[in-house]
Design brief:
11 helices; 3% strand; 3-stranded antiparallel β-sheet; 217 residues; Alpha-Beta Plaits; single chain; globular
Amino acid sequence: MKNLLIIWKKYSFLLLLAFIFLSLFDLRFALAAVICMAAPIAVSFFKGRFWCGNLCPRGNFYDNVVIKISRNKKVPEFLKSVFFRAFMVVFMMTMFVLGIKNNWGNPYGIGMVFYRLIVITTIAGVMLSLLYNHRTWCHFCPMGTLASLVAGFRKSKKVLQVTSDCVSCKLCEKKCPLGIVPYDYKGNILSHPDCIQCGKCSNVCPKKAIGYDKISF
């Protein structure tokens, strides 16, 4: 299972490219985007924002391709703010719902709504990566924000955990693409609702103090 996840994280961005290419020939292919809209919220009930950091094809596109051209600079606090994230959820969902309503009964028209939404936001994510880090979009992705809310309420224990072996070396903080401070959760679950469970903090930890099933409850 772990090997399959590694392969998925490395190559699933090809699904995003296939989505963009195939939808040019038949917009009904774009309807598959509904999976990537519903899945983050569904998964967050059980494992927080695990979808965002591991299963999202666009997220993996940022991790494997866009990271090579990213400036890797700190994301402005405004883009992380509750106000901006709430605005993005309301704005994007309003545009999406109106688009579906105006094209109801027309699968090609609805497909165009999905296609336009995915392509425009992906381009926006790439452009922001040129200014800041490769996961800038994930700070205010509407579906990620909704998943974050669910994760915050559910407080799942099936997420990354930080043991008391942590020595607060701060390497995890420097590696986290969303600017979270994992060592603040020493001896507990990494319960920050925005943690995308990407595992970068775990990989860089010299004490192997971050991971799954590290703490007994």
